Structure formats: C-alpha cells, structure tokens
TrEMBL record:
Pfam families: Fungal_trans (PF04082). InterPro entries: Stress_Response_Reg (IPR051711), XnlR_reg_dom (IPR007219). CDD domains: fungal_TF_MHR. This is Xylanolytic transcriptional activator regulatory domain-containing protein. The lineage of its organism: Eukaryota, Fungi, Dikarya, Ascomycota, Pezizomycotina. The chain crosses the membrane at residues 413-432. GO terms for biological process: DNA-templated transcription; positive regulation of transcription by RNA polymerase II. Keywords: DNA-binding, Membrane, Nucleus, Transcription, Transcription regulation, Transmembrane, Transmembrane helix. Residues 175-251 form the Xylanolytic transcriptional activator regulatory domain. One of its GO terms (molecular function) is sequence-specific DNA binding. GO terms for cellular component: nucleus. It is found in: Nucleus.
C-alpha cells in the first residue's frame, strides 16, 4: 500500500528475498550486453559463422519434417512446400543457391528451421554434434547481416523464427530485443494491413496467406512476451486490419479456388488450431489491457471487464469443443501434431482463465481475516467464484502437464509450457497457504498436484534456465506451505491440550506424513531454514493494488536478476516506502 514502510513483514519482503535467492543461485556476467543481460548464457562454439556443417540430406530432411510435425504446432507461419523448395535448392547446389538478392534470407530461414526442429527432438535422436543448433543460429545471424535492398517477408520470418529459438534457450531478453526489430520490419512492409491476393501487383495467394500467418504469429508472441515480462505490447489492435489466415493446408494454398476449398474441406486441418491460437491471443491482449493496466481500474469497471472476458473465453471454447474435448483415443490424435495442438490450446485457455481471476485472488490475500464492510455476502460470492475459476484452471493445467510428462513428451524446449506450469503451481501453493488452518482434505490434493508439477519443471530445468528460476521460487512457496501447515496444527494441538506424543494427535501425524511425501529436493536443502512469510495469517508480496506488483514479480523472474527498485521509493531520510 502507498506509504507503507518496508520491513520484515511488509508486502515487498517476499520479492526482495526471491531476488536475493536468485542472485545467490544464478550467476550473470556483468559483461553481458544490455540487450541480453539476465539471460542464460549462449555458449558460442568456436567455428566460423559463415560456414555451417551440412548434415547428410536424409538427416536434414528429418529436421524439416520435425519442424512442421512437432516443433511448431500452432505457430504455423511458414509454408512447407516453400521451405521444402529452399531445402532442395540448398542441397542441390551444395549451399550456393540460385540468384543473389534473396539468398541470405532464404538460407537463414532454412538454418533456423534446422535449429528450431533439433531442440524439439529427443536427446538420443538429434543429428550432428551437441552444439549444432547454436551453430545454425549463428550461421543464420551471419547471413541476415549480409542482407541488402528492400525488406522481404522471408527476412521477417527468419528473425521471427530466431525469436522462438531464443525462448527455447531461456534467452527471453535477447528475444524481446530481437522482436523489436521483427515488429518494426513487419510494420514497415505492412503485415498489419489487409492485403488480399492481387495478380496485378504480383501478390500470390500463397504470399498473401503467409503474410497473414506471419503477422498473427508475431502478434501472439507479442502477447506472451508482454505477459511474461510485464511490459507494454508492441502491436496495438487499433492499428490492425489484417484478416486472420484461411483454414487451408499448405499443399492446397496454390489452388485458385482456395476459399471454396476452405468451406468444403471436412478433414481436420493443421491450421485450425493455429487460427484458434491467434483468436485466443486477441482475448489475452484484452485481459492484459483491461486487468493489468498501470492505471488504477475502478472495481465496477474491472468486474465488467472480467465478465466480458469470460464471455469471450467461453465463446472461444464452445467453438473449439469438438477439437479440444474429443476423446484422446480418437484416430485424429494418432497424428502427433494434433496432440501437440490440443495441449497448447488447452494450456493457453486455462492460463487465460488464471490471468483473468488472479488479480482478485492476490488482492484478497491480505483481507482474508476480515469481511467486506460494503456487501460481505456479495463480496464473498464473487471471491468464491474467482477462486473456483482460478483453482480449476490451475488444476487443469498441472494435470495436462502431468499427462504430457507421462507420455514422455515434455522437452526442455517447451518454454511456454514451463511458464504456464509455473503460474498454475504458484496459485495452488498460494491457496494451500491460505487454507493451512482448514482440514487437510481441503488443501491436500492441491498441494500434491502442485508438488508433482514442480517436480516435472525441475526435471527439465537446466543451469541458468528460466525453469531453474521457476523452481527456486516454487520451492520457497512449497516449503512455506508445509511450514505454515505444521505451525498451525502445532498451535491447534497446544490449544487442545495435546502434546506431540499424544495418541490423539492425528494432525501431527498427518503433517509428518505429508512432509515425507513432499520432501525437499537435494538441490534446495537450504530453503527450510528461513521463514519467508508473515506470521499474521497473511501472505505478503502479493497484495499490490490492481496487480502491478505481479508484473514486477514476473519481470524479476523472466528477465533475469533485474532490481525491483521500480516498486520502491524513498522518503527524506532514506527509508524505503511503497
């Protein structure tokens, strides 16, 4: 709250402690560029970026196939026959390529397809040396630096693919900086404007559709970066009149009757989920604008915004129910790309629900012990609805993550999956801490689900990665949840006159069992030694009006070890206030 001093029990203490823990656990070179500071290091191989090893043609073809069949389930802005033609030309000419003007962008785009596909392959099935993806990325950088002349669509696509690759490497600041260039290039060639095919200008149906696909995939990424980093979006809806892409397979785009084909095609299209993802991104952009604004939002306007957003989300879900809710044993899901698409859309949908209701949950944490003075009944009903929606979405998220893990399909490259899992798990731990004074039946399933999901994130966390940072924060919350449960029930036993050895102290026995079940991983043995929460029944650090503090919190984690000094100000004698 404004004017409140920061002490051990203040609202920012949690953020300060997290910042301290991150600095202790993760080393970031002060020599890093300002554009990449806070990112995981990119180990640059000792090689000439102007030369990149050519894999055997069959191995390289596997990479192209993996890119379209698995790596990019909903970001389908590349036209497979076009990429295949680049591939064939590259190998037929031994990398020289025909022509001159567009060669750097074409080669760079092909290299980025290789790099992106390779990180989405099992470790034991990746062709080439371990650092080959980095070599492809650096080679693509070299070729793009040689571009001359006007901006081309392939130039935007190559750099956009680089952005997605950087996210798989936990280089979100590098991605955000590069995305600035991508967005400016996209706007410069008018990708945000609606340009239908026009034979008079030479704009083919394929290029028109690829322009739309590229723009809306960039728009979707812009939304994710804004949410993860707590920064303003680059694209604004008022500046956009580009139509969404058509739901047509790549191989059919050359058909002059494509619109007729779209309306008559009864088979499931891989573009269906891609378009649905774009529509969902537009809803999420509304959520960020209406519920996460830096300007104070009156409660009545906020409530109306939530109602409209939920209406939009439910409408989106009803349109996609045949795809999202179909039996997982359906023959459709024998095709891996449809499985991936379904998981991405479901996770994104549940995350949108969490984003919608999270501000209410967090803002209410400091007021749990007192009822509303205005309308306690209405306030409680609204709070219960917000809580129910948020918890359900969080549980759906962690259960989906568990299903993906059991199918052995959770890869380190799943950057957005880890982000969704992190946000959902945080909400579950918060609820457990909030309910620590209740019967264990109220919160035990949520604690178990959160702990299980945390273990899945830890399994794919590499040193310096975003997943490692997520695990550090989640472990703080997990240990605190167990500590709060133990403290409450020990107090309950004392008030009841029972000692720890009493045969009736089933609560203590239950806690001990829970502690054994959810033991602290060996990587984080120090976390049980320090209390990170207030002892007044509140959970500090999450009580920021209109939730700007949550954006600062995600910024702290996602962007690296940035200071949270932007949350703080100082009085005339140097005391910190918020």
């Amino acid at each position: 709250m404004e004017g409140q001093y920061i002490g051990p029990a203040s609202g920012v203490s949690f953020l300060l402690r997290i910042q301290k823990r991150l600095r202790q656990a993760i080393s970031v070179s002060q020599a890093s560029s300002i554009f990449t500071f806070g990112d995981a290091p990119l180990q640059v191989p000792e090689s000439d970026p102007s030369f990149c090893m050519m894999l055997p043609r069959a191995d390289a073809q596997r990479l192209v196939d993996r890119y379209f069949d698995f790596a990019m389930p909903t970001y389908r802005f590349l036209h497979k026959p076009t990429i295949q033609s680049y591939f064939d030309e590259f190998y037929d000419t031994l990398g020289i390529m025909n022509g001159a003007q567009n060669v750097p962008a074409k080669v760079a785009l092909l290299f980025m397809v290789f790099a992106q596909a390779r990180v989405y392959m099992p470790d034991n099935d990746r062709p080439g040396p371990p650092d080959l993806s980095k070599r492809y990325f650096l080679a693509a950088e070299h070729h793009l630096s040689r571009e001359k002349g006007s901006i081309r669509l392939a130039s935007v696509q190559a750099r956009l693919t680089q952005c997605y690759y950087l996210l798989t490497q936990s280089r979100i600041n590098h991605c955000w900086s590069l995305f600035g260039t991508v967005s400016h290039l996209a706007l410069a060639i008018g990708l945000n404007r609606n340009r239908p095919p026009d034979p008079n200008t030479g704009l083919s149906h394929i290029e028109s559709e690829c322009r739309r696909r590229t723009f809306w995939c960039a728009y979707t990424l812009d939304t994710y970066l804004s949410a993860a980093l707590g920064r303003p979006r680059t694209f604004h809806d008022d500046d956009i009149d580009s139509a969404l892409p058509a739901c047509i397979e790549d191989e059919d785009l050359s058909n002059i009757d494509a619109e007729v084909l779209q309306s008559s095609n009864l088979a499931p299209s891989t573009m269906l989920a891609s378009i649905a993802h774009m529509k969902l991104a537009r809803i999420i952009s509304k959520i960020l604008g209406s519920l996460y604004s830096i300007k104070p939002v009156p409660p009545s306007i906020r409530a109306a915004a939530v109602e409209q957003v939920m209406k939009d989300l439910h409408g989106w879900r009803s349109e996609m129910t045949r795809f999202l809710d179909v039996d997982i044993y359906s023959t459709m899901f024998l095709v891996s790309i449809f499985q991936r698409q379904r998981n991405v859309l479901n996770l994104t949908y549940w995350h949108a629900i969490i984003l919608t209701h999270r501000p209410f949950i967090l803002s209410n944490l400091s007021r749990l012990s007192r009822a509303s003075k205005d309308d306690p009944v209405q306030d409680d009903m609204q709070r219960e609805n917000n809580l129910s929606e948020c918890l359900n979405a969080a549980m759906e998220t962690v259960n989906t993550i568990n299903d993906i893990t059991e199918c052995r399909q959770l890869f380190r490259a799943f950057w957005i999956t880890a982000y969704f899992a992190f946000n959902a798990t945080i909400m579950l731990y918060i609820y457990v801490i909030q309910q620590c004074g209740s019967r264990s039946e109220v919160y035990s399933s949520y604690l178990a689900a959160a702990t299980r999901c945390q273990s899945h994130i830890a399994a794919i966390a590499e040193k310096g990665s975003l997943s490692e940072r997520y695990c550090l924060v989640l472990e703080e919350l997990r240990v605190e949840a167990l500590r709060q449960i133990q403290q409450f029930h020990q107090s309950e036993l004392q008030l009841s006159g029972f000692s720890g050895e009493s045969p009736n102290s089933s609560v203590q026995t239950r806690y001990t069992s829970m502690q054994n079940t959810h033991s602290v991983p060996q990587e984080f043995p120090h976390l049980e030694k320090e209390n990170i929460f207030d002892l007044e029944g509140n959970m500090p650090g999450f009580t920021f009006p209109n939730d700007p503090g949550w954006e600062q919190f995600t910024n702290l984690l996602s962007s690296g070890l940035g200071n949270i000094d932007g949350l703080l100000s100082y009085d005339s004698v140097g005391n910190q206030v918020i």
